[in-house]
Fold this sequence. Notes:
The protein is mainly beta. The chain has one domain: Metal Binding Protein, Guanine Nucleotide Exchange Factor, Chain A (Beta Complex). It is built from 2 helices and 10 strands. The strands form 3 sheets. It has a 5-stranded antiparallel β-sheet with strand order 4-9-8-7-6, with no helix packed on it. Strand 1 and strand 2 form a beta hairpin. Zinc ion binds near residues 17 and 84. InterPro entries: CENP-V-like, CENP-V/GFA, Mss4-like_sf.
Amino acid sequence: MTSNKQQTLNGYCHxxxxxxxxxxxxxxxxxxxxxxxxxxxxxxWWEFYVHPEEFTLISGEDQLGLYQFGDLQTSHYFCKxxxxxxxxxxxxxxxxxxxxxxxxxxIDEFTQEQLESFTPNISYLNGISNDWxxxxxxxxxx
Length: 142
Ligand SMILES: [Zn+2]
């Protein structure tokens, strides 16, 4: 699943206690996700998925809090110092197994121009209705 087109990007929480690296292929448009489920909406979560082997936690493990709810299938990791959630871990049938969901806004190397270039490829998930394969009727607020 790794390829030589992939480059290493660095991600940080706000206080930079949590530092991680991800391998991403930016020669094609980055597919990002927003969702209207209870936790994504409240945290204004914007993510992209990588395979677990494409993710490396560099530092901050001892300052990571873990939040889970509902069926406990998804692990939400947050920095206990600054409160930012840099990534989540879970399993998705659509994705094809285990994934790490990366907070797009934690990748400091993304320029504002790059961030804007991702927006035409956002997949909006109707998680609030447990309908993960369709764009919700109302999504522009996400
Ligand atoms: Zn922090």
